[in-house]
Amino acid sequence: MASTSEIKNGLCIEYNNDIWTVVEFQHVKPGKGNAFVRTKLKSLTHGRVVENTFPAGHKIDVVRVERRNFQFLYKDDMGYHFMNNETFEQITFEEKLIDAPQFLQEGALCEVLFHAEKEIPLQLEMPQNIVVTVTYTEPGMKGDTATNTLKPATIETGTEVRVPLFVNTGEKIRVDTRTGEYIERVKE
Fold this sequence. Notes:
Elements: E1 2-3, E2 12-15, E3 18-28, E4 36-43, E5 49-55, E6 59-62, E7 65-76, E8 79-84, E9 90-93, E10 109-115, E11 121-125, E12 129-137, E13 150-155, E14 160-164, E15 172-176, E16 182-186
Antiparallel strand pairs: 1-6, 2-3, 2-6, 3-4, 4-5, 7-8, 7-10, 8-9, 10-11, 12-13, 12-15, 13-14, 15-16
């Protein structure tokens, strides 16, 4: 048992017979009345996000989780298949439990959150950014780099991202998997 003063981003708690991770939180001390903690919680079993307010000092059940490295193998009609590189154990995830499935590449290393006591996989976390090759984009015009204008580009996973005008087909770029935004062009 812990109290609301120990709430932080990424903390896993048990609440309403489900396991939740704290996405956002804010301690609020109004001028009148008691303090409270406003949170945004994401269900690790269903993937839905809800907002909840806890009174200050409220007791919460913290769930102990372990992070393990897994490698993405393939996707089929049963889901996304991953393998533990140490034990060669394979697990399958539904799409709703993966943060950004559109950016998964074969062989990509990801972290899987496991419930420490029950040994069940809870959530899969992608790396914060990935390097991908642009498979198609309209060619940029010479001298069109003065503005922050973006154009659509298809990357090797089949996903479309917005890139600056100077990025061409065949170039490698770094993409943020949390937002899907272009970060930079990668030199080889």
